[in-house]
Amino acid sequence: ALRCHMRVAGIVRLDHVMGLQRLFWVPDGASGHDGTYVSMPLEELMAVVAIEAQRFGVDVVGEDLGNVDPALREAMSHEGLRRMYVAQYSLEDHELSPVPEGSVASFSTHDTPTFWGWWDGVDLDERESLGLLSASAASEGREQRVRDVVRLRRALDLDADAGPEEAFALLHRRLGESEAGLVMVQVEDLLGERRAVNLPGTAEERANWSQLTSQSLEEMAASDVLSRRLAPLALTRGGGDNALVHSRWGADDVYLFNEGRHFRIFDHLGAHLVEVEGVEGCYFAVWAPNAERVSVLGDFNEWDPTADPLSPRESSGVFEGFVPGAREGQVYKYRIRSRLGGAEFDKADPVGTFFEVPDRTGSRIYRSRYEWGDQSWMTARQVPHHRPMSTYEVHLGSWRRVPEEGNRPLTYLELAEQLPAYVAEMGFTHVELMPVMEHPFYGSWGYQSVGYFAPSSRFGTPDDLRELVDALHGVGVGVILDWVPSHFPSDAHALGLFDGSHLYEHADVRQRVHPDWLSWTFNYSRNEVRSFLISSASYWIDQFHADGLRVDAVASMLYLDYSRHPGEWVPNRQGGREDLDAIELLRHVNDHLHGAFPGVFTVAEESTAWAGVTRPSVEGGLGFDFKWDMGWMHDTLTYLGRDPIHRRYHHHEITFRAIYAHHERFVLALSHDEMVHGKGSLWTKMAGDDWQRFASLRLLFGYQYGLPGKKLLFMGSEFAQRSEWDHERSLDWHLLGSPAHEGVRRWVRTLNEIYQNEPSWWGDDAGEMDFGWISCEDEANSVLAWRRGVGEGATIVVVNFTPVPREDYWLTVGGEGEVLVIANSDDPEFGGSGYPVAAESPNLGPEIRLHLPPLAMIVLTRKAR
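Given the sequence above, the corresponding structure tokens read:
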């Protein structure tokens, strides 16, 4: 029954709410004198009501006329149910009793006399005429009613001869000014009806619920009586100076938003500088469906929460309003009073585009004025399925710092002067920026975001970030942004419990709390949350010209039992462990971005064997363009961390990838994840002495670039940073003064050059024809050899995973012609030993003889006769 009503109603009133606490049972066939009260499971029943109210976004009112048990009233408050306040029962000697915060306040209900009938004692006359009151009781009742009318006049500070019309107006103004969450007026009171529609305690004596109003609906609409009697409430609850004169919401916007299919909510929610009827100011809009009242407070109104209330937009859950005189750069927040218990709190704007510098938590009014200069780049960009993609992963706060100024990080503008030139000189095709979205805790590296539409103000303004992106595009480098739809921090000023309810997150703690980070997970089943997240993804592509998004922690989204023990998770509607709503969201994100922004791509950080991550959604996949190959990263680093003498016993670790390499479109990532939390740097992961570590690191990068798949390298690794990455300080750029470190950097630059110039290394690196083993079973020597491509233009990669040179090493590679060495990681230019390769092919036939350098990778090709 609850669900049936809640599907169509915005507010549900529970008649005789005491029935949740106790019921009066009468045995079958007995009279009421034989009945008794039976206690009910109040806590359980109240929880059911609260859960269903949350599910349907419905406000619940319990019929509390002031006579319910305090325990029931406390339970109602705890679960967010409103109580009632009926003024005719709340008269004290010289005042009305205080209106409970968040309650539903009125003078009368359908079970009480109307205001006008109460004033004149009409209800008493009727009860006497029906024989329900004796003449003496009726007379005493009338005397008491006269005294009650006098008390009401005193409570309202009215003259002794003030009539009912004046009292009615002032009473409802007082109710409107009170702490009530809702003020209700019976239509009979608005029409001046004297006879109530119902007289409790009667059945056959009176025709209840059949009385017609004195005016039809058409007459009510044409009459000015209703608007005149509602005027006191319009004055106190109609939005004040902020009454809506401008809206960015149309009926279609509301519908699409509530359906989970509005992908540009940043055009409608948040703060927007506008001019309305010649007045400059700012339009504000925020989604808070369980708010009783929302106002915007900030620098423009001296942070007065009563100055600029926002108006609800029909039943959309959106509150909006125009604030004259609000200017760019001013800080603001939303003051929200929840209708679930009446708590008040200040929140940053979920769709704010600029924030104060943390640790301050306010949002700033901002308007972009940036003029892009990357039109040619935007026109020509393509999804790099069949193009080179070599990515440099960067944390903006620690790439370089300014030690002369307190070791501060570079700004966006300073990065725009330095980063593009360096990345282009190194030969990378893309930069991946670890999350630039605003985040309170710097040590989260951006992976605990609160500003899903705001770049971090630590480094400058949003337009400053646009300039950085523009500068990277100007040197031919694409930009990938990390995006985190998997979880968010529970900071009090942010998304959690936004309007007093679990609005963005799950209500059930088993679904809400992420066990690894103790952050909160989004409720992907909620339509408006889907609109929020897909709009966020669109925002960074549309407003910041990002070329791709790397979606963080996808595995934690896909599995309901991710990092959870039995009993700590909730199965899906089919009884399984897959998060069906998250799967649907990811498909929608990918489909929308590919459809709306040609040339844009998405990358999944997905650490399990989930099938079809890069398969189109129409074929049952998730629709990503690429997936990080986490297994390759783990296996390879484990292998190279072993003493070379033991590697022969673990040869399978280094060859296993070929079994699944063509199941998805992979990125071979050596990311920040492997250089934090005590794991050391890539250099420290390599086995052996210093020389062997440098050689192994060059070998690792060569092995990475020589295999099928796109490439990603975390900053600092390109010059063999020795220490573990520390987000509080700069990379160790002084190491480039060492020939060994400079040699590694030159090798990475050479690999990028080979990679881009050899189509066999990227033309179809997800296809089976792109790769073939030449030798994969030489466990004794720990040597691998494979080809990239076929026919003319194919290359041969040979890797020696031991520090022992292999002389006269024979391989059958096919083809014919002279053997040419394209690259050799052991070359002295890169810090190698210079051991002679001596590649040759007797009779220019299919067999070749090599001298393999220690811990080295060489790239060969054949020059046809």
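The first strand starts at residue 11 and ends at 14. Try to locate this feature in the token string yourself.
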